[in-house]
Task: structure prediction
Amino acid sequence: MGLILWMALAFGGSREDAEMERYVEDMNTLAERQAWPGVERSYEKILELQGVEISREVHLTAASSARALGDMAAVLDRLKRAQTIKPNDEVGAWISSIEEDFAPVELRSVPPRDLTLTPETMPFEPDKRGAVELAGQRLTEDGEFVGLLPVGQYTLQGQEFEVIAGVTTRVELSGRDLKE
Result:
């Protein structure tokens, strides 16, 4: 039995509390090294724990991780979780900025196949560029992307569409649409 687990059990803490401490420590260590996939795994394990309170700081670290990976939908979700614990103007401004600059999209092919997403202009800002790159990666691998994209004009496998703030954009391409 690990030292943290033993100490938590010995002093009346639950097993979940001890696991939480271990995952938070792992998460912080990985964040310091910018090992974002590891941070994501630790955060997912934390979310699976039952009966523990997740701190605002954990959600903010997880938001930074998702940002580094280009997953702006996860960033927004995690910021909102942190904001419900302890509201903060800086976090509120970050949420507002995301909601103004990004919009939800559902892009897919039926049946799933490799798709190419092309923005009219590739954004320079790292958050926006990362979101476009993540969407492109998922479309190439899975033929589907559900998340946030920067507001703007795009082409998906030859079909043009616009992402508008506050509006969910859905583009579904069938096998017939994809034949040349």
Remarks:
- The CA atoms of residues 76 and 105 lie 14 Å apart.
